[in-house]
Design brief:
This protein is α/β, with parallel strands linked by helices and 351 residues long. The chain contains 4 helices and 16 strands. The protein has 2 domains: 143 residues, Leucine-rich repeat, LRR (right-handed beta-alpha superhelix) (Alpha-Beta Horseshoe), CATH 3.80.10; 147 residues, Alpha-Beta Horseshoe (Leucine-rich repeat, LRR (right-handed beta-alpha superhelix)). Strand 15, helix 3 and strand 16 form a beta-alpha-beta unit. The termini are far apart.
């Protein structure tokens, strides 16, 4: 409260202090206008919000990457629009970008320099575009990237130099492409990778050494391919694998030791293949199958050669999925019967 007894010097000092604070506040708002508006300044085609850790921008419809996004932008969503090209300077001025979501566009080409100025990028989602290749060196400055999703593009192969620099990659999804073969050295030293999704491609075989550089792999999707067998030792370097999906292939025979190193396996799906017989002991050394297993939709030949499988099924039947769809295809007198029921009736030598 103003006092008439105040000294003139004191009043002047108080007045000057107030003016100074007002000028500082005005300058602050000029430098950081987004704080005065509640949301940052944003390009016309975008909607920007200001969560705790930086600006989040959702843009579209548009056919080119928007310019003038706030420098503190950390999340960008440009999905299901007409974006077709990503030039080398598209992300210029976004040094704090952490997630880039570009699903459902028409992107058929990206520049090798696209990610050069975004060293903090952690998530890149390019689902559902028309990419047939990636430029070498694209990820040379992407040491922080932990999730790369290339699902639903037109990739017919993958090359090791496309992925160089992804030292922290935790999740790689290249499902629903047109992959037929993969180079053996594709994934060397991807020691942080936990999830690999190769499902719904056209893979005819899996290189025996493909998984050698993935010691921490926990989840592997191979379903929906054209695999006829798996080479001995395919999983020898993935002891922590917990989920293995092999359904919807053309598997007709498997090496007896193929699963012997998977002591932590919780889920195995072998359904909808061409398995009629499996070697004794095939499943004996796997993990506890705490989630379960699926052997349905195979043409099982239910004779004495399946005795090893019968014993294993009886000991693990409580974790068996789709028992009523796991049927014998032959011999004729067993055709149509549930495999588990035949296992209960079949007299086999004790193991």
């Amino acid at each position: 409260m103003f006092s008439y007894n105040s000294e003139p010097g004191q009043s002047l000092a108080t007045c000057g202090m107030g003016s100074s604070l007002a000028m500082q506040l005005l300058l602050f708002l000029l430098l950081f206008p987004s704080l005065g508006q509640g949301v940052p300044w944003c390009p016309k085609a975008c909607n920007c919000t200001l969560p705790v850790n930086g600006t989040s921008a959702t843009c579209g419809p548009l056919d080119s990457f928007p310019k003038g996004l706030p420098v503190d932008t950390t999340f960008v969503f440009i999905e299901y629009t007409n974006l077709s090209q990503l030039s080398s300077d598209a992300l210029k001025g976004l040094p704090n970008l952490k997630e880039l979501h570009l699903a459902g566009n028409r992107i058929d080409n990206v520049s090798s320099g696209l990610l050069t100025l975004t060293p903090t990028l952690k998530v890149l989602d390019l689902t559902g575009n028309t990419l047939s290749e990636l430029p070498s060196g694209l990820f040379r400055n992407s040491a922080a990237l932990h999730s790369l999703v290339l699902k639903g593009n037109r990739l017919q192969t993958l090359k090791a130099n496309w992925l160089e620099g992804l030292v922290a990659l935790n999740w790689l999804d290249v499902s629903a492409n047109q992959l037929q073969r993969l180079p053996p050295d594709l994934l060397l030293n991807f020691t942080a990778l936990n999830i690999l999704d190769l499902s719904d491609n056209m893979l005819l075989e899996l290189p025996p050494s493909l998984l050698k550089g993935l010691p921490n792999l926990e989840r592997l999707h191979l379903e929906g391919n054209q695999l006829q067998t798996l080479a001995k030792g395919t999983f020898s370097a993935t002891p922590h694998l917990c989920y293995l999906f092999l359904q919807g292939n053309k598997l007709s025979n498997l090496p007896s030791s193929i699963f012997s190193t998977l002591g932590e396996l919780d889920m195995l799906d072998l359904s909808n293949n061409l398995l009629a017989q499996v070697p004794d002991g095939l499943l004996d050394k796997m993990g506890q199958m705490r989630v379960g297993f699926d052997l349905s939709e195979n043409p099982w030949k239910c004779d004495e050669k399946l005795c090893g499988l019968y014993h294993w099924l009886l000991n693990n039947q409580d974790r068996m999925f789709f028992k009523n769809k796991t049927l014998c295809d032959s011999p004729e007198d067993q055709a149509g019967q549930m495999l588990l029921e035949v296992a209960k009736k079949r007299v086999c030598p004790k193991q």
